[in-house]
Design goal:
Helix content of chain A: 25-40%
Family (chains A, B): Belongs to the LysR transcriptional regulatory family.
Shape of chain A: globular
Structural class of chain A: alpha/beta
CATH superfamily of the largest domain in chain A: Periplasmic binding protein-like II
CATH topology of the largest domain in chain A: D-Maltodextrin-Binding Protein, domain 2
Protein name (chains A, B): LysR family transcriptional regulator
Organism (chains A, B): Paracoccus spongiarum
Oligomer: homodimer
CATH architecture of the largest domain in chain A: 3-Layer(aba) Sandwich
CATH class of the largest domain in chain A: Alpha Beta
Pfam families (chains A, B): HTH_1, LysR_substrate
Keywords (chains A, B): DNA-binding, Transcription, Transcription regulation
DNA sequence: CGCGCGCGTTCGCAATATCCGAACGCGGCT
DNA sequence: AGCCGCGTTCGGATATTGCGAACGCGCGCG
């Protein structure tokens, strides 16, 4: 019994998704197909990749070790098959784009729709996930990132800058006291962001101490905005998320004149040589799209 | 339409074999299957890999470029899947062994049969071909080589040494005159070896000039021996090929006391890291098998 | 403590893909 | 001119794949 590319892709998908059911849902396959592919793959390799207990699976150490080698090998294979078409040949294959949820939903849709229309034979996959930290996960070609980059192994191109706003609801300030200077921040709590510590994304410089992180956290910017509107604390959020709430008064800006370092919005990709044509095309496309200031920055 | 591992393997096989019919024969598939896989692969990639004319195919430049990238990528994928089994797991997968035709037929059969019996889940492929020069051709894991190695990118382990004999038939010597000293060689012709120039494998050192290469050449040692027996010239051949013909007088040794550098017999493999377990196991096995002098060297 | 839930596995069945052999057209060789 | 070997195409048989239902398991909740 031998393995197939589908077996490998399915294995990596299950590892990423954490369960057969989730991987099946993502791949639009039935659970039985995914389950069988995993079993067949294990039989072909002669090793258990997952342990089974009470209708749950857990990856083995072998699974992680195998994935570590399969991902680049599969990427090379795919890159090889996609490299062979001439420069004028239509783009084909599969381009996976990752990005933050709120940013993606708001600003990437039309841009990527335009790109997909321009390349009808290219399969485009969007995966919006605020927790995304590892471009090495199976199948991603490019990612959008907000903030200063931690992973220096990736190549980055800055698209624009994203100012943040420290906000609170009027109700919150009425109950907890106004904030008239940076020193006043110490007496307040901020709604936490599950995927990054406040100090990591604090844009006002080290001389302004951030408020302490409160007992409320969320893993999504829109959720944090809603919690802030509900009066549960201060929130440091991208302007594009709070723009409307600021305009209609549900939130107010805290210390709006404080100078800040704007957070960059970048597209990043792994340093594959030669660069796949589809990756080049996408990066050029999105750079063009962001060449002028985004709408949420006009008038602020 | 997407491609499969079978498509890739079939493409590389056709490139190696030079025709769909030959590749089909080698793979024990029908011509129509191989033809369809090539067509499907071309459709999936959106590029022509072969040109067709009057029932013949020829590879395009794209085919060579693609193969150059697919071979290592496929090898990485296979290595990854084979790396995952623990050290005590039975060897599985596919081990391809290349070697010279005559040597392989005579001396490798029992050795490799023993190895195959010890590892019942491992598929073993033997490819005896005197012209084999490129271990990079698809699918070879190890090769046996006779002679000094040209390709320093391979790792070699010497198994034994292989003396050669310069021989001729009594009839040839009766017609062309005896050879009493090295200087007499100049007046004679040697049957050529299609895969190596005589000067490349001449074991008697530069101070002994080889005879000139004649109009008769062959690509196989046994064929050269038979041509020598037929009186068509001198032949420089491994002892294991001419051993029996020397014993029964059909050939006689020329200048048998001339000191020579024995040609090494080595097993070679590419420097893959980590070394596949199957490759390690095979090399150890064949080194053990050749640890004592081979039978054709006893009594000479 | 009992029930409902979500998970993964297995099985039978239908749909799809794969493989084979025959037939055909092409150009080269005798 | 006829034969040969090549690659392509097609219809049919076979094998594989994918699906949904049913089941057993342990966990969490009331």
């Amino acid at each position: 019994m031998s393995w197939t590319i589908s077996d490998i892709r399915t294995f990596l998908a299950v590892l990423d998704a954490g369960s057969i059911s989730a991987a099946a849902a993502r791949a639009d396959l039935s659970k039985s197909v995914v389950s069988k592919r995993i079993s067949d793959f294990e039989a072909a390799l002669g090793v258990a990749l997952f342990t089974r207990h009470a209708g749950r699976i857990a990856p083995t150490d072998s699974a992680f070790a195998l994935a570590e080698r399969l991902r680049p090998a599969l990427a090379d294979l795919v890159a090889a098959t996609e490299s062979v078409a001439g420069p004028e040949a239509p783009l084909r294959g599969r381009l996976a784009v990752a990005g933050p949820m709120s940013f993606g939903l708001r600003h990437l849709g039309p841009v990527i729709a335009g790109f997909a229309r321009a390349h009808p034979q290219l399969e485009v996959v969007l995966d919006y996930d605020d927790q995304l930290t590892d471009l090495g996960r199976s199948g991603f070609d490019v990612a959008l990132r907000i903030g200063w980059l931690r992973d220096s192994s990736l190549i980055a191109r800055r698209l624009c800058e994203d100012p943040h706003a420290l906000v609170a609801s009027p109700d919150y300030l009425a109950r907890h006291g106004p904030i008239l200077s940076p020193a006043d921040l110490a007496g307040h709590e901020a709604i936490g962001y599950l995927n990054a510590r406040l100090s990591e994304i604090w844009p006002f410089g080290p001389e302004v101490a951030p408020p302490r992180q409160g007992r409320i956290t969320a893993n999504n910017g829109d959720a944090m905005r809603d919690l802030a509107i509900g009066g549960l604390g201060l929130a440091l959020l991208p302007l594009f998320i709070v723009h409307d709430a600021l305009r209609d008064g549900r939130l107010v800006r805290i210390l709006p004149d404080l100078p800040q370092r704007r957070l960059p919005v970048s597209v990043v990709w792994p340093p594959t040589r030669p660069m796949p044509r589809k990756t080049r095309a996408f990066i050029d496309h999105i750079a063009d799209a962001f060449a002028e200031d985004p709408p949420w920055q006009r008038g602020v």
